[in-house]
């Protein structure tokens, strides 16, 4: 009917209009695919709740230094604090809403199959201190290549929920002389994106200002230091 009523010009215009529409639809499809690829490639983040304050949560993200995030705020990593109470915080991370208790971490699934890295920054004294977690509980670690194993203080071990009653006791040499320790196995240790299972550790009878991130963890890493930055990469 287009040919009879309007001639070839009308038909041509119809074709041009259809081609334009198809071109727009194709471009739109490409844009959507590109956005989907970007979103699907985004890495999940590991979020820990180190403490709560009125209207704020003290979060550790990907093993970093604890930072306060106000209710309603969103971090650069895409973590939003929705609400807080005396012991918990409700957050939105990795596309899900979750309730965290103080000391609990939401573990990223992206590094469960191996690999991963952690980037640490030295403090004013040149020490590398970082937040990780042991068996899902947030722990402050001091990197110590002179420590044979991960070392925990007595109260830290209790807070994590470690059972030392069946552990093997031994004497170790420390900077303050000999100390009695109990050998334990840690189910999981996480620092940054790195997760190691079944890690040897010792629990001291006395208190310690930090847990020591010793060689039972570090000997499975590639360690690179560049000035004030240390990068750990999981080898196996």
Automatic annotation (TrEMBL):
Q: Per its record, what are the GO molecular function terms?
A: aspartic-type endopeptidase activity
Supply one GO BP term. proteolysis
Task: Give the enzyme's EC designation.
Answer: 3.4.23.-
Q: Which residues cross the membrane?
A: none
- Give the EC class as a word: hydrolase
Q: Which InterPro entries match?
A: Aspartic_peptidase_AS, Clan_AA_Asp_peptidase_C, Peptidase_aspartic_dom_sf, Retropepsin-like_bacterial
Q: Which named protein is this? A: TIGR02281 family clan AA aspartic protease
């Amino acid at each position: 009917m287009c040919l009879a009523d309007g001639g070839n010009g009308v038909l041509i215009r119809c074709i041009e209009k259809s081609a334009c529409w198809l071109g727009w639809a194709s471009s739109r499809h490409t844009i959507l695919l590109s956005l989907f690829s970007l979103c699907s490639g985004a890495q999940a983040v590991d979020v820990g709740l180190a403490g709560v304050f009125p209207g704020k949560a003290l979060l550790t993200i990907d093993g970093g230094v604890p930072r306060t995030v106000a209710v309603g705020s969103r971090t650069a990593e895409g973590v939003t604090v929705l609400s807080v109470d005396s012991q918990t915080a409700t957050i939105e991370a990795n596309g899900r809403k979750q309730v965290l208790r103080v000391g609990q971490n939401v573990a990223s699934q992206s590094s469960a199959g191996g690999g991963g890295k952690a980037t640490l920054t030295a403090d004013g004294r040149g020490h590398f201190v970082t937040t990780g977690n042991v068996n899902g509980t947030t722990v402050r670690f001091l990197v110590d290549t002179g420590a044979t194993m991960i070392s925990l203080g007595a109260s830290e071990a209790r807070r994590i929920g470690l059972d030392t009653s069946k552990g093997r006791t031994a004497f170790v040499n420390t900077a303050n002389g000999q100390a009695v320790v109990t050998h334990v196995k840690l189910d999981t240790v996480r620092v940054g994106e790195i997760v190691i299972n079944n890690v040897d550790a010792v629990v001291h009878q006395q208190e310690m200002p930090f847990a020591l991130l010793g060689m039972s963890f570090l000997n499975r890493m590639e360690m690179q230091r560049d000035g004030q930055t240390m990068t750990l990469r999981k080898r196996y």
